[in-house]
Write a structure and sequence with these properties.
- Helices cover 34% and strands 21% of the residues.
- By secondary structure, the chain is α+β, with helices and mostly antiparallel strands.
- It folds into 5 domains: 61 residues, Helix Hairpins (Orthogonal Bundle), CATH 1.10.287.610; 225 residues, D-amino Acid Aminotransferase, Chain A, domain 1; 74 residues, Beta Barrel (OB fold (Dihydrolipoamide Acetyltransferase, E2P)); 158 residues, 5' to 3' exonuclease, C-terminal subdomain (DNA polymerase, domain 1), CATH 1.10.150.20; 68 residues, Rossmann fold (3-Layer(aba) Sandwich).
- The chain has a 5-stranded mixed beta sheet. It has a 5-stranded antiparallel beta sheet with strand order 16-15-14-17-18.
- The longest helix has 24 residues.
């Protein structure tokens, strides 16, 4: 790869991490999970290691935190508050110790003692004491300079204001973590996204009285500047902190040997579900202060400490209840209400159980201790059940045979394709006759990908439905604004804004309109295909008169499943009434005719691997703009496989077998007379 492209990729990642740091440290907003942040940071460090010409003052290898907020006075840390290197595997820990032994010129048989301290997910703070009196309290800031939040820190009961112990140092900066217990967060969760944001936001209130209202806790774990600290090890120091009146983590341990560190790591990870505070890993510190001093620091991190992060996507919790949710297609989805647990920086309290078959297969019950998995933006789900921890009094979960919303019979439809009954149980009601289905259909109708009515969110849909202001999609465009103006929380201006937003959306494209109808198996991509095929709303609606549903199979990408869904939609009299009413109110634009004479006419493409400086969405758009077609799998119909970095091996092999031309990003762009 060219230096310019590498630099471009590097700068892009730096810009992202700088933005996330600003949001996290300055604005109290977590835009991504801890695991996603760690992954981005690691990508930057790998690029720097691989390409020595990459250097920047904003690199996470140099920078710590973010510059202090302008709201508070700034103050210098007398000893910098360094960040920690991260470890994600046993190999990382072995490598950490190997580097230490090499630096100290010790052999591999040396038995080093470590403290293992669970890493609380909160806000770092440094407390300066002189002659036993708390003088100032600073936030981490950028590690060198922090915010003076003394008044706010003094409201926390866990922080001693005066320490009279004779062995307390003459002067010392005691450092620790400000956090909120999960049980306390339950009472304030409406105001904050997660416990960490709650702690951060509370510490940065202008008025300390506002901070005092929040049940903040403080756990001490290290020190910065000191004068008169006569101790030889970290574990001694942790014990002294308790004697002086500070709270310390009850799971702190003194451990020798990597195997024992890993054993402790596994034990603590299993206990996470039972803790009343969030931890995202365990910090290992060399216990001996003399060795810590010898080892010193590199860049922005000490050589003698490392954070061993927990698995980013798994955690153990307990099922408190199982609720049945009903979607817009009538599908009954069981959802486990679990004891809140932090997974990858996100507080999770719900996990999908998918369907009745999944519950039966895994024998999931209320009260079970379970492993919960969350990957990226995927909805958390139950991975496994720990049968050994199942309560003695336990009973199987019985799936309802009647809809919890309308009382209609619940059914499992026969799938003609698989020749089996569907795994999903559905409400047999005719759509709008079921309250839950009706509400979910309306939510879908106003959603971002559909009508995208600004200010018409899910809660407003629910509220208006309960007040009988809307029951069907057409009601949205016939709202009684005088009634709305008299409702709590509504005024003349907000009503005017709502009316403007609704009126603005009376003009809509055919593809978005088809998608807004919420037809089962018809997502946005299928809606685009159908709109292109029919061209106009009148031709699409004519399906209800001519019953020529099989002609839909002429559309590449539309199969029997989609055809049956559309057929069922048009066979419902209420749906036809809704269509007729909407037609009277809306201006539904015809589909824009395709450019059939572009540079990629009659050519099909598939992308695999990571592209440089261009997204898959942009590639797809370029292909379609130039009369080409994209497909989702390798077949004889495929003309070109565009291969990026780390392509799917199977796709490349299949393409070679079928003698399909494999091209790179540059070769594709040359076909369009473009360059990367």
């Amino acid at each position: 790869m060219k230096k310019s492209l590498i630099k471009k990729e590097y700068d892009k990642k730096l810009k992202l991490i700088k933005r996330y740091n600003q949001k996290y440290y300055s604005d109290n907003i977590s835009e991504i999970t801890d695991s996603e942040y760690d992954s981005l940071k690691n990508e930057i460090l790998i690029l720097e290691k691989k390409h020595k010409f990459l250097q920047n003052k904003d690199s996470p290898s140099i920078a710590v935190g973010y510059k202090p907020s302008k709201i508070f006075k700034k103050a210098q840390h007398r000893v910098p508050m360094l960040s920690l290197s991260n470890a994600f595997s046993e190999d990382d820990i072995l490598n950490f110790e190997k580097k230490i032994l090499n630096f100290l010129s010790q052999n591999n048989n040396s038995n080093i003692s470590y403290t293992a301290e669970p890493k609380i997910d909160g806000i770092s703070a440094s407390l300066t004491y002189k002659n036993g009196k708390l003088i100032t309290g600073l936030s981490r800031g950028d590690g060198k300079e922090g915010e003076d939040i003394t008044s706010n820190l003094k409201t926390i009961n866990d922080i001693p204001k005066i320490i009279l112990s004779k062995d307390f140092p003459k002067e010392i900066d005691i450092r620790g973590e400000v956090f909120i217990q999960n049980s306390d967060f339950e009472n304030i969760k409406e105001k904050f996204a997660n416990p960490r944001n709650a702690a951060s936001g509370s510490l940065r209130q202008k008025d300390p009285k506002d901070t005092q209202k929040i049940p903040l806790k403080f756990i001490a774990y290290t020190f910065g500047f000191e004068k008169g600290l006569n101790l030889n090890s970290q574990f001694e120091y942790l014990n002294k902190l308790s004697e002086w009146g500070f709270k310390t983590n009850p799971l702190n341990r003194l451990i020798s040997g990597i195997k024992n560190l890993i054993k402790n790591y596994d034990e603590v990870e299993k206990k996470r579900a039972d803790l009343d505070f969030d931890i995202d890993g365990i910090v290992y510190k060399i216990n001996d202060f003399a060795l810590q001093k010898r080892l010193g620091s590199v860049a922005n991190a000490p050589r003698w400490a490392i954070a061993h992060k927990f698995s980013s996507n798994k955690a153990i919790s307990i099922i408190l209840d199982i609720e049945i949710q009903i979607g817009r297609t009538g599908a009954l989805t069981p959802v486990a209400k679990i004891k809140p647990i932090n997974i990858g920086g996100v507080l999770v309290s719900n996990a999908t159980l998918h369907n009745e078959d999944e519950i039966n297969r895994k024998d999931i019950r209320i009260g079970d201790t379970v492993t919960v998995e969350r990957a990226g933006d995927v909805i958390p789900h139950i991975l496994s059940v720990d049968i050994k921890k199942r309560p003695k009094i336990s009973s199987k979960f019985i799936f309802p045979d009647k809809c919890p919303s309308c009382g209609s019979k619940t059914i499992k439809e026969f799938n003609e394709t698989t020749k089996k009954k569907d795994a999903v149980r559905r409400c047999s009601s005719e759509g709008f006759n079921c309250e839950k289905i009706s509400i979910e259909k309306l939510k879908h109708f106003v959603s971002k990908e559909a009508f995208n009515i600004d200010g018409f969110g899910k809660k407003i849909v629910e509220n208006f439905w309960k007040l009988n202001l809307i029951k069907f999609p057409q009601d949205i465009f016939k709202l009684d604004y005088k009634k709305i103006e008299n409702l709590d929380g509504w005024g003349n201006l907000s009503v005017k804004n709502l009316k403007y937003s609704i009126d603005e959306k009376k003009n809509i494209s055919l593809e978005k309109f088809i998608y807004s109808l919420g037809i089962r198996h018809i997502g946005l991509e299928n809606a685009k295909l159908i709109s292109k095929y029919f061209g106009s709303f009148s031709k699409f609606k004519s399906l209800s008169n001519n019953n020529q549903y099989q002609e839909l199979l002429n559309i590449d990408g539309i199969g029997e499943t989609q055809v049956n869904s559309i057929k069922n939609f048009f066979s419902n009299k209420m749906n036809l009434k809704v269509l007729n009413e909407l037609e009277k109110t809306l201006s539904i634009n015809n589909a824009i005719p395709e450019n059939k004479n572009g540079l990629l006419k009659d050519k099909t493409f598939l992308v695999t691997g990571k592209l440089n400086g261009i997204s898959r969405a942009e590639i797809k758009s370029l292909i379609e703009e130039n009369s080409g077609t994209t497909v989702s799998s390798v077949s004889k119909k495929l003309d070109y496989l565009i291969s990026g970095d780390k392509p799917t091996k199977r796709k490349v092999e299949n393409a070679k077998e079928l003698k399909i031309k494999i091209i790179n990003q540059d070769q594709f762009l040359k076909m369009l007379n473009k360059s990367s």
